[in-house]
Amino acid sequence: MTALRLTPLLIPGSRRSMRLVERNVYVYRHTWLVILSGFFEPLFYLLSIGFGLGALIGTIPGPDGEPIPYQLFVAPALLASASMNGAINESTFNFFFKLNYNKTFTAILSTPLSPGDIAVGELAWALIRGGLYALGFVVVMLVFGLVVSPWAILVVPSALLIGFAFGAVGMAATSFMKTWQDFDLIQLVILPLFLFSATFFPIETYPPVLQVIVRLTPLYQGVDLIRSLTVGAISPILLVHVAYLSVMGFIGLAVVSRRLDKLLLT
Amino acid sequence: MPHLPDATDPSPLIHARGLTKRFGSFTAVDAIDFDVAPGESFGFLGPNGAGKTSAMRMIGCVSPVTSGTLRVLGHDPASHGPQIRARLGVVPQQDTLDNELTVRENLVIYGRYFGLSRAECGRRADELLDFAQLAERSGDQVEHMSGGMKRRLTIARSLINEPELMLLDEPTTGLDPQARHLLWDRLYRLKQRGVTLVLTTHYMDEAEQLCDRLVVMDKAKIVAEGSPRSLIERYSTREVTELRFAPGIGETLDGRLEGLAERIEHLPDRILLYADDGEAAAAAVHQRGLQPEAVLVRRSSLEDVFLRLTGRSLAD
Prior knowledge:
Helices cover 76% and strands 2% of the residues of chain A. Chain A is mainly α.
């Protein structure tokens, strides 16, 4: 039922939820500098680990087994991780604050907008921000000569897909949170994903059993997707990644929409 | 039983029968019946916790009805929430302004939530800023404004969609007297324009000022219904004589005030004599040799009605 109701909302131009995006644009017009911050995270990692550590490492086997420079290996993974982190920050801490301490949503519910519109609108805003960061990072990669395949044109949409998947699930998780302490649990999930999803070293480093587990985790889908597109190692497995992340996002959205009904309409 | 307006009235803006709201085992609103006619100014009067806000939230389509019938603007909130809300103006008990935006932006974005064009939102925002006497504060951050200004902005915001029905939950609670009078004046003007007002309050003067008709709520139920004047006539005398005695004396008066008034109410800090001629009652008290520290003769108010109906004062 909820999933059915969500589908029309997600069609681009779902006007009511776009009002939330507009609200955020108004807010950030006053504090536009804050918005720049998200751009630096992957850049700093790239400079430190990609070029610093990469100078010691040299080349490393790429997605199709061909050796590639370490910077080229790690840059797409950093973009995927940054998309995840950005979406998680927006959909957990910021979302929790708006839900519990800021009466913004309460006021909005007295208008024709519904909790589902709010969920979709907030997520759309997180994605727009994430998309801008991804675009900025792709430009940086271009400057450093780290874009070697025309398939890289799909890198930004892929980053958005990662943001969608993690943002929706993050919001769903946040809707169950009672206190700020509960967020430690989220970090307990996000940090290992960041470190172990074949982000900094090839998945072949793991023993076979662990490889299987890593291949089932969500960030790995994103890392492998963006890395393969960047170096042009196209295979049908990329479609599996896309499907995995899409399903994850829609499930998250269905859950959060239902939870918001419960939390806000008492 | 509360008396209800003429049943032949074609289309009440709000129609409730057996309206009930339960939270778990707690019943916040217990099977209340009422109708609100177009253009009317209708009040829920009652102490905190009487169920006023719960009733308002159900009417505002942000709280599902547990049982009973509710029609707002002719529709069922359960199935037509967004359509109904599009035609409501809601002033919640606590300000829910967007602190991250300026005064004018608050109005504009709120209009956008109703699907109005940017140009239209801007035009209405400027009009409403004048109406709320906030035009000079247009570019200020909301956070730094006084309580009265925030309240006026909240009311202005609720008008951005030119609502047919306004729901005001304790519109002036916490405001100083000047700010309250300014707000009452604005609400009165809206009423003059034909906007239907539904408000909750625990201030008698507010109910008397603003409401054509009201229901008195206590412990989730409606205990009386009528115009402020008719309620006073029905449940109280024309005047009230308030007597204050030195501490300890009040309890020793047993029976000595008997017969001086139609009804005598003993409150912790004072004794109320309900009589049509308050001055005569006061004189009679002195004739009996009693010496209260202070005597006040006043007209009956809704507070007296409430006291009569529930045995408690509204401020409790």
